[in-house]
What does this fold into?
Amino acid sequence: MHREGGDINETFNKTNIDFIGNNSRVREIYSVINLVADSITPVLITGESGTGKDVVARLIHSKSPRAEKPYVAINCAAVPKDVFENELFGHEQGAFTGATAKKSGYLEMANGGTLFFDELAEMSTDTQAKLLRVIENKSFRRLGGKDEIHVDVRMLAATNKKIDDAIRDGEMRKDLYYRFSVIEIHLPPLRERKEDIPILINYFFAHFCKIHFKNLKKLSEESHNLMLRYDWPGNIRELKNAIERLVIMCPEDIISPNYLATNISDAKFQEDKISITVGTSLRKAEEEIILRTLDAVDNNKSKAAFVLGLSRKALYNKLARIDKY
Ligand SMILES: Nc1ncnc2c1ncn2[C@@H]1O[C@H](COP(=O)(O)OP(=O)(O)OP(=O)(O)O)[C@@H](O)[C@H]1O
Ligand SMILES: [Mg+2]
It folds into this structure.
C-alpha cells in the first residue's frame, strides 16, 4: 500500500477515505482539496466515470470544518426531474394535492454541512437557475412557502460530461457553471497516470484479500505488464473490480495471465499495429497477420487461433503453407 510519507498519507488517519496516488497531477489535486476544504466556495469536480469524483467530494467534506455535520449526496440523474425541486426545497403543507404535511428537502437536511450534486448536467435547467439563486442568496423557499429560509450549505458538484458539450447542448446553464467552476478539480483518467497502477494494484490486493479472508495474492510479472498496458476505460472503478474478481476467482497466490479477463489480457493487441501497403497480396497480408499474432501471444497456437477466429487445425494448415515458419 502506498503509505510512505507525504501529505496523502495523512488523509488515511484523519478521514479513513482512501485516495491513493502519487502522480504529480494527483498530488496537486490533493493540495487543492486541502486548500478548498476550509472555505464555503462551490467546487466542480470533473473527470471520466470511475476516476474518483465521489471520493474527492467526500474528502473535501471530511477535511472541512463541517466534517461532523451532514453530508448529503444527490444523484441528479437518479431523481426524476418532476419531483427534483420537491426533494431539494421541500414543501409546505397543502403546497399541492397530496402535500398533507410539511416536508424538508435536501437543502435543510444538509444545513451546516455539505450538499453534493452528482451528475449536475442532468438537473433541469429551470432547477439549475433556482439553485444558482440559492447559492447567491444563501436562502430559499419551500414549495408553496412564503418565508425565506436561510441555510448554510457548502455546495459541491460533479459531472463526467464534457462541460463545453453540455453547455452547447443546453444541458448546463453557463451562469451556474461559472459559479461552480471558480474552483474546478479535474481528475485525470487512469491511462494518463499509469505510474499509479502498481500502487493501486497493491492497495486493492491488500484490501480485498483482507476482507475476503485470503492469503495476500500478487500478479505474475506477465500479468502485471498486461495490467500496465491496458487502457482502463472504466478507470479506478474498473481496476478495483478487476482485482476483487481475481481475489475471489483465482485459487493461486501468484496470478498468471490466463486468470485475467480477456479484455485485459488482449491489451497487448491494442498497441501492436500492422501496416500493409496497397498492392500486397492477400496471401502475404494473411501471413503477416498470422505471424504477428503468434508473436503477440508468445507462440501459443490455441490462443492465436482463438484471436484469429480460426480452428487450431485451420491455423496449422495455414502455418504449413508459410515458408518462413
Ligand atoms: N484515488 C483513489 N484511491 C482509491 N480508490 C479510489 C480512488 N479513486 C477512486 N477510487 C475508487 O474507485 C471507485 C470509483 O470511484 P468514484 O465512485 O469516486 O468515481 P466517479 O468519478 O464518481 O465515477 P462516476 O462518474 O461513474 O460516478 C470507488 O470504489 C472508489 O472508492
Ligand atoms: Mg460518482
About this structure: The domain at 191-269 is CATH 1.10.8.60 (Helicase, Ruva Protein; domain 3). The chain has three domains: 6-188, 191-269, 274-321. The pocket of adenosine-5'-triphosphate (ligand 1) is lined by residues 18-21, 47, 49-55, 160, 236-237, 240 (CB under 6 Å).
